[in-house]
Amino acid sequence: MAALHLLVELRKRHDRPAPESDSREDRDEFAALTADLLDYLGEAFEAELNADQRRELDRARAGADARARGLRAQVFLSRQLPDYWQRFEAHRAAHAELRLAAPDRPGGFLKRLFG
Fold first, then answer.
1. Cα dist. 76→45, 61, 94 in Å?
2. Per the structure, how many domains does the chain have?
3. Which of 35, 51, 94, 110 is 20 to 30 Å from 61 by CA-CA measure?
């Protein structure tokens, strides 16, 4: 939900139409934004852990693809950290703030050419 909310806000910020569920391009943009958020959360939480906790986290997220590892890490952290949801919300908000402050990414050759 965090990535979907951010996608909608990014579209508003850059005067782009709302995402559509039947658009492959919109689904791809959502998937990329979700992966970016999971990466950001993983790095932010890992920076706050001690060496033992990082080793446990590495064991918990072993195997599978990058998305599955990111999700496994968040599940593990939610079970281990008593203040996980407060930290999650702070990291999610920081990520959203960074993304909303960044310039719109070019959508293709014609968009770059004609602005």
1. 11, 8, 21
2. 1
3. 94
